[in-house]
Design a protein that fits this description.
- The chain is mainly α.
- The chain has 2 domains: about 1-150, no CATH class; about 210-385, Helix Hairpins.
- It is built from 11 helices and no strands.
- The protein has helices spanning about 1-10, 45-55, 60-110, 110-130, 135-145, 150-155, 160-165, 170-185, 190-295, 305-385, 390-415.
- Helix 7 packs parallel to helix 9 (about 190-295) and helix 9 (about 190-295) packs antiparallel against helix 10.
- The longest helix is centred in the middle third of the chain and has 105 residues, at about 190-295.
- The chain is rod-shaped and about 175 Å long.
- The two termini are about 85 Å apart.
- Residues about 1-35 have low confidence and may be disordered.
- It comes from Paraburkholderia sprentiae WSM5005.
Length: about 425
């Protein structure tokens, strides 16, 4: 069994941490410190009973087998107690380290240099006091910090397991994985445990790589979404300005309609004025004709017309001038009215065209936004499923189409 092999690999002197190490243990060719043998698997009652019946069943009496199981349980109990003492050693070492570092931090400040000085001083003290190597002291501290609070590790892990797991770069997830493996198969070898750890770390690295890849893709997509949002905001702002321009054009058109109504009113007034002037001119003309019929034409020495005839003629001429002036005003007003009506029709047509264009642009923006969202969703699904090769042709064709469309957009932008 692996437990017996591990026990053979560890010197019996490791049970007594106060005993001096052999000479040359700290030399350049010295082997790495091993954990004390109490850090081996501690079987429970069920395991002991099964093992005793596996080796002694059919050869020994049941009472003797029960006695062997009881004695073995005493060994397991003692081992747990010894393990607790070793944990206390590691805990005391760790507490000394923390106390000295806290004092150095209080006096010298919390800096890497002060903590390093305190740590070095503690190691030197423990090495001198207990005549053990620094790696031995460090092993106790690290074992205490990593496994003292993990009941599963204490119960199921073996010596070689803890030596493989004690590194700081191995997380709790790997420790729990090895504990579960030991629960399922206590006979796993050192090589199998190290392979499990290596495979699990490889899986974690692969997952981290894929996570980083997906994170980068999400970051790129987020950047594209930000760019799309900026473009949409810019186009929305342009559409807003276009809407404001349309509203202003509508106000101008309403002003034109007001001017047109005022011109029509003035036209009506001028038409009334022209009609009155025309009636007055007709009346004056009739009066002039009647007066002319009453006057007999003959040669008289008087060179001038009578005053009332002269006044009537002047009044008729004045009325004719007023008529001509009113007619000219009416013609000018008619021309202005026609120009206003033409302007109104042109502005109405332009407003209608701009409204159609605005609806078209808004619809285009909405469809483009929907397309971008659908594309990003599809790309994430393809990335999550790892199906890049299956859709590479589709993405290439889509890239070509988008590239051609991008050229059209640039040409349209330059033309504008």
């Amino acid at each position: 069994m692996s437990n017996s092999k591990d026990l053979k690999k560890v010197n019996n002197d490791e049970f007594d941490p106060t005993r001096l190490e052999s000479a040359g243990a700290d030399g350049p060719d010295a082997l790495e410190e091993s954990l004390p043998p109490t850090f081996v698997h501690i079987p429970n009652q069920t395991e002991l009973s099964q093992a005793a019946r596996q080796f002694f069943g059919g050869q020994l009496d049941e009472a003797l087998i029960a006695s062997i199981v009881a004695e073995s349980e005493e060994v397991a109990h003692s081992t747990r107690k010894i393990f607790g003492e070793h944990m206390r050693i590691g805990g005391n070492f760790a507490h000394i380290m923390i106390a000295v570092q806290n004092d150095f931090v209080r006096r010298l400040g919390d800096t890497p240099k002060s903590r390093s000085l305190a740590k070095e001083l503690v190691y030197r003290y423990l090495q001198h006091a207990f005549r053990r190597s620094r790696s031995w002291v460090d092993l106790y501290i690290r074992a205490y910090e990593k496994f003292s609070s993990n009941a599963g590790a204490v119960q199921y892990l073996e010596l070689t397991d803890m030596q493989a797991l004690i590194s700081n770069d191995i997380g709790d997830d790997i420790v729990e994985m090895v504990i579960e493996a030991r629960k399922d198969n206590p006979e796993l070898s050192k090589r199998e445990i190290r392979k499990l750890i290596s495979d699990f770390r490889g899986q974690i690295a692969e997952k981290n790589t894929r996570l980083e890849l997906v994170t980068n893709q999400l970051s790129d997509i987020a950047g594209e979404l930000d760019d799309t949002k900026s473009d949409r905001d810019r186009l929305t702002e342009q559409a807003k300005r276009l809407q404001q321009q349309i509203e202003q054009e509508k106000k101008n058109a309403n002003g034109t309609l007001v001017e047109l109504a005022e011109a029509q009113r003035m036209m009506s007034v001028l038409q009334n004025q022209l009609a009155n002037t025309e009636r007055e001119l007709t009346a004056r003309t009739n009066e002039l004709r009647e007066a002319s019929e009453k006057v007999q034409t003959r040669e008289v020495p008087v060179p001038t017309l009578p005053d009332h005839i002269k006044n009537l003629q002047e009044a008729t001429e004045n009325a004719m001038d007023d008529f001509n002036e009113a007619s000219a005003k009416v013609d000018a007003m008619r021309a202005e009215l026609a120009a206003l009506e033409q302007r109104r029709d042109a502005e109405a047509a332009r407003i209608e065209a701009q409204e159609v264009l605005e609806k078209k642009v808004k619809g285009l923006l909405q469809k483009f936004g929907d397309f971008m969202q659908d594309y990003h969703s599809a790309q994430l699904l393809v990335t999550a499923d790892g199906a890049h090769k299956a859709f590479s042709g589709l993405f290439t064709a889509l890239a070509d189409l988008v590239g051609k469309f991008h050229g059209e957009l640039l040409a349209a932008a330059r033309a504008a």
